[in-house]
């Protein structure tokens, strides 16, 4: 091969490598929506048919006019669940809109659990403190590690972070709070943001399989737009593409250097 063709070949290999890596990585990193609930049901009966009432009261469609993003769901003293479209074993993000009813001595959480309903992570918004001195309540990241499937709306798991101010009023006249709860498979980092502001984070690698979503209510809370997205990690294939191209490039460069020294 003419030595002048080496740079051209290397350039073409670089283009091919970039294309292959882009395809492989974009395919493996694409976020996959595995749960999307907007509560767009014709009536409460249809809503309750879609969700499993584990304990207490079932979900219901809300009708309060001050919540403009209708339809939405209300939760009383109850625990309700629904399966994801597939089991998630990669990084995930759980997002939801929620509003308390403005009354103290209440608590609501949303969490992702394994198929058995025994292990999972959740976010609790607690208003057991006096709402006059603490009008926003407190949020914390919770861990559930149970001997049998969760069966009571009074089960709140164990706090693995301190309680923090979410920065959003519990008063029912306020817009719903935007909660975003994420878990990173690689680092084990659990993080929570409310209305776009980072609130809490903690590392926990105890669990790695998530198949169900649970919603716990405590007379009353309002929910809307619950979604779960999974973000797969880079595949072995995409990494091998990079190794292959680098190896070929290195061999060509060595051959080019050898040809020059021979002259």
What labels describe this entry?
22% helix, alpha+beta, 3 helices, eight-stranded antiparallel beta sheet, 263 residues, seven-stranded antiparallel beta sheet
Description:
- With 263 residues, the chain is of the alpha+beta class.
- It contains three helices and 15 strands.
- The strands form two sheets. Strands 1, 3, 4, 6, 11, 12, 13 and 15 form an eight-stranded antiparallel beta sheet that branches. A seven-stranded antiparallel beta sheet has the order 2-5-14-7-8-9-10, with helices on one face.
- Strand 7 (107-113) and strand 8 (119-126) form a beta hairpin.
- Helix 1 (5-29) packs antiparallel against helix 3.
- The longest helix has 27 residues, at 236-262.
- 29% of the residues are buried.
Short description:
The chain is of the alpha+beta class. The protein has helices at 5-29, 44-50, 236-262; strands at 32-37, 52-56, 60-61, 73-75, 78-88, 91-100, 107-113, 119-126, 138-145, 158-159, 177-183, 189-194, 197-203, 210-217, 221-231.
Give the biggest beta sheet.
8 strands, antiparallel
Percent strand equals: 35-45%
In whole angstroms, how far apart are the ends? Answer: 14 Å
What percentage of residues falls in helices of 4 or more residues? 10-25%
The poorly predicted ranges are: 18-27, 236-243
Morphology call: globular
Return Rg in Å: 25 Å
Number of helices: 3
């Amino acid at each position: 091969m003419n030595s002048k063709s080496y740079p051209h070949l290397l350039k073409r290999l670089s283009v091919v490598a970039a294309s292959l890596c882009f395809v492989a990585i974009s395919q493996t990193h694409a976020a996959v929506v595995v749960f999307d609930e907007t509560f767009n049901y014709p009536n409460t009966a249809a809503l309750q048919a879609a969700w499993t009432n584990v304990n207490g009261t079932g979900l219901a469609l809300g009708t309060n006019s001050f919540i403009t993003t209708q339809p939405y769901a209300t939760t009383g003293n109850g625990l309700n669940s629904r399966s994801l479209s597939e089991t998630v074993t990669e990084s995930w993000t759980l997002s939801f809109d929620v509003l308390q009813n403005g009354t103290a001595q209440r608590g609501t959480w949303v969490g992702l659990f394994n198929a058995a309903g025994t292990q999972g992570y959740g976010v609790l918004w607690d208003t057991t403190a006096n709402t006059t001195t603490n009008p926003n309540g407190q949020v914390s990241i919770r861990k559930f590690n149970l001997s049998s499937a969760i069966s009571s709306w009074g089960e709140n798991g164990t706090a693995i972070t301190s309680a923090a101010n979410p920065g959003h009023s519990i008063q029912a006249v306020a817009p719903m709070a935007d909660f975003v709860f994420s878990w990173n498979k690689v680092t084990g980092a659990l993080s929570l943001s409310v209305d776009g502001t980072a609130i809490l984070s903690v590392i926990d690698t105890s669990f790695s399989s998530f198949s169900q979503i649970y919603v716990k209510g405590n007379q009353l809370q309002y929910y809307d737009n619950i979604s779960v997205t999974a973000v797969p990690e880079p595949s072995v294939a995409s990494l091998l593409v990079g190794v292959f191209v680098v190896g070929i490039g290195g061999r060509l460069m060595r051959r080019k250097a050898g040809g020059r020294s021979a002259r």
